[in-house]
UniProtKB/TrEMBL annotation, chains A, B:
Belongs to the methylmalonyl-CoA epimerase family. Residues 4-137 form the VOC domain. It comes from Spongiactinospora rosea. Its EC number is 5.1.99.1. The lineage of its organism: Bacteria, Bacillati, Actinomycetota, Actinomycetes, Streptosporangiales. The keyword Heme does not apply. This is Methylmalonyl-CoA epimerase. Keywords: Isomerase, Metal-binding.
Length: 142, 142
């Protein structure tokens, strides 16, 4: 089902400061900056590796408000790993298969993720305490 | 510096139960089971993807005792993501470079990791709250 570890999402208080840290410390490169109002985050994708089934990233997430999901996470847990995302060929198909196995989905249908992807979240209590995201990459540009 | 997301390490109470869950839910395959006395864990590596610079895995970790680092993590945080590991070409070289940049190392020298790798951990407070592992893959068998 999983094609790759698509990204590890890290919650932080100050996106630009954290980007500068990851760039200068690990030599990583930002490939995308976005604001996702629906999810209440300002985010950046930093490239780690390319593979035959897509690329892997670190995703940095700064909440747009304290009462957003990432804002509440930061207040409760502090900065750190927020979720782990796996690439799938078809997110709707994966949701159907996993829902049929009794995994609770946090989304009824796929929604917009980073860089044009379609995503859905699985309930962390059903996946070993790990908030898990499914990511379907956008179709290649023609 | 980073070649790949090598693995995401997940702390759990019951290794065999969690392996069975990941296999049946996501169709993942266990490629290695080990006991690492030094780190106080029983662990398994589940394959996610192969890439030009190495493979990616989910690592499941069960503590050998409650007073081990993973045992204490479970008592405090419950099951979930324990650390994130990145592949590097040379772990000693990466330690030197990161130490020179002021990142605190939890290991003075590389130690034994999963499947013959050499590893070292970085202080989570210096890497955005994420316990970070450096992994140098073993030399290929001849």
């Amino acid at each position: 089902m999983f094609l790759r570890i698509d990204h590890v999402g890290i919650a932080c208080h100050d996106l630009e400061a954290k980007i500068a840290f990851f760039e200068s410390t690990f030599g990583m490169t930002v490939v995308s900056r976005e604001v996702n109002e629906e999810q209440g985050v300002r985010e950046a994708m930093l490239h780690v590796a390319d593979g035959p089934n897509g690329s892997s990233y670190i995703q940095l997430l700064e909440p747009l408000s304290p009462d957003s999901p990432v804002g509440k996470f930061l207040a409760k847990r502090g900065e750190g790993v927020h979720h782990v995302a796996f690439g799938v060929p078809d997110v709707a198909e994966a949701m159907g298969e996993l829902g049929g196995k009794g995994i609770r989905l946090l989304d009824e249908r796929p929604r917009h993720g980073s860089m044009g992807s379609s995503i859905a979240f699985l309930h962390p209590k059903d996946v070993g305490g790990m908030l898990t995201e499914l990511v379907q990459a956008p179709p290649p540009r023609t």
